[in-house]
Amino acid sequence: MNGASRQVLIVEDDLDLRDILKDLLSAEGYRVHTASNGEEALRILDEAPGDRFVILLDMMMPVMDGATLIQHLNARPLRHRVVVLTADIEVEAAHTDISAMLPKPFDVTALKAALASAA
Fold it and tell me: Could you give the 3-state DSSP secondary structure of residue 37?
């Protein structure tokens, strides 16, 4: 994996889960960025316009949810790989590369495998 593909953007409104994921993925060697909603995620992506991220995306969040963020990602020229964390929402995104969908709660081994295949 190259350095750019080792960047993960965690978009999750649950602070405890976001912190756990950040610690876990940092220990795995990923460069981790975090956002509590889709608007924050877009700001992070705008600050690094040429960087590719694997986006670990929660679907149900305040301010801007995962489905709306996916719509914004579809309108951008740079494609990011997306791993969706969801309890029960089906995701349809024709242009965004959704690499995996993991149910909440998720298995850590499955998460690591999904990120490795997306990166």
Answer: coil
